[in-house]
Write a structure and sequence with these properties.
elongated; Rossmann fold; about 375 residues; six-stranded parallel beta sheet; 13 strands; seven-stranded parallel beta sheet
């Protein structure tokens, strides 16, 4: 059996590698080829193109590499139509993969897409195009599967690989020792995002929040993971503008350890909120973009919540502060309130634990079973 596969970014490379290993456990004779990163190559995938060719972020960067990206897709389509694989798997990268899947499906090649785009939250009309491209959708979240079932698509919920990787019990003390954090303080993790635009917009309000909260509770100590030198420079620049003393530790990368060490987390809405949930951490979520982007997104979003924890819980479990609501008084007030409300924290942690169990499904093995069962 021969499977074509395409993954674009580092996260897709990790998913792809685990999936290849899981399929090989069930059928060692399957051969893989496509667009692959180093982990997928190590797992046994023949790379026709390196995944880094598709890992381009930002409008200007995409435009700069657009001709090369489109040419790669054209070459893949031509090659696989001439020599059809038994199955194609597109991992995330929806803008690239759905067009590729549509072309292959039109030539009677079975297509699977692993990781749903957020069509359930906005641009729901895209599901019609997706159904014309994809024979089977594999989702990480149960509410996504319901969305596709209601749209008449073949879909399987396989669980989230991150839920498989993170232990149900968190070693808080070990994380604090590793980071050299004080043991006698309440640790507040600040995660203003990983993208430059997020860090630029959220660093100052997060630091103003920390200052506001510290004035009211001097037992707080803040810790911030920074993904690279550029992020550190932006954050340190914002920190230099904050008046007064602030007990704060800056850490290079190690966001997982930082979150594990915390009593509470203030973070940008995004995938970090899911990791915080799986680590059973009380949290406050902020979402801030440009005024124009907010006006556009606000009109297009069709779900009641921005953050994954609330969408997974089906209720406003975590307080979300959106755009103009991102102020020191709002964020700091919620941090202090939640820190001091043991009953609410316990209820939140219990629901986070229930969601962790729900998502912990041996995702790669279930995805492999669904794929091999679909073409058997």
């Amino acid at each position: 059996m021969r499977i074509a596969i395409v993954a674009g970014e580092a996260s897709g490379d990790l998913l792809g590698a685990d999936l290849i290993k899981a399929i090989h456990k069930q059928n060692p004779n399957v051969q893989f080829e496509g667009v692959a990163g180093p982990q997928m190559i190590a797992a046994g995938c023949k790379a026709l193109f390196p995944a880094e060719k598709l890992a381009v972020m930002g409008l200007v960067e995409v435009l700069k590499h657009l001709r090369e990206i489109l040419n790669i897709r054209k070459l893949l389509i031509a090659q696989w139509i001439e020599n059809p694989p038994d199955l194609f798997i597109g991992i995330d990268a929806p803008d690239f993969n759905f067009v590729l899947e549509r072309a292959l499906k039109d030539h009677q090649i079975t297509t699977v897409h692993y990781v749903s785009p957020s069509v359930w939250a906005w641009r729901k009309s895209r599901v019609k195009k997706i159904s014309c491209s994809t024979d089977l959708m594999l989702t990480l979240f149960p509410f996504e599967a319901e969305f596709y079932k209601n749209a008449g698509m073949k879909v399987e919920f396989v669980g989230h690989p991150l839920a498989d990787m993170i232990e149900l019990e968190v070693d808080v003390e070990g994380a604090r020792k590793q980071l050299g954090l004080p043991e006698d303080k309440k640790i507040v993790a600040l995660l203003p995002g990983s993208r430059r635009s997020e860090i630029s917009r959220l660093s100052k309000p997060f630091l103003e929040t920390a200052r506001w909260a510290f004035k009211r509770d001097s037992s707080l100590h803040f810790v911030v993971p920074l993904i690279n030198d550029s992020a550190r420079h932006l954050f340190e620049q914002a920190l230099s503008e904050i008046e007064g003393e602030l007990p704060i530790t800056l850490v290079d990368k190690q966001s997982h350890e930082v979150m594990a060490s915390a009593d509470i987390i203030l973070l940008a809405s995004g995938t970090a909120a899911l990791e915080a949930l799986l680590l059973k951490k009380p949290m406050v979520v902020a979402y801030k973009v440009s005024e124009l982007s907010y006006q556009i997104i606000h009109r297009m979003v069709t779900v009641p919540y921005y953050s994954l924890p609330n969408n997974l819980a089906g209720e406003g479990l975590v307080k979300e502060f959106i755009h103009r609501g991102v102020t020191a008084e709002n964020l700091g007030g919620e941090l202090i309130s939640l820190l001091n409300d043991s009953q609410r924290k316990e209820e939140m942690i219990k629901k986070f634990t229930d969601i962790h169990h729900q998502l912990k499904q041996n995702a790669s093995e279930r995805a492999a079973e669904a794929i091999l069962g679909f073409i058997s």
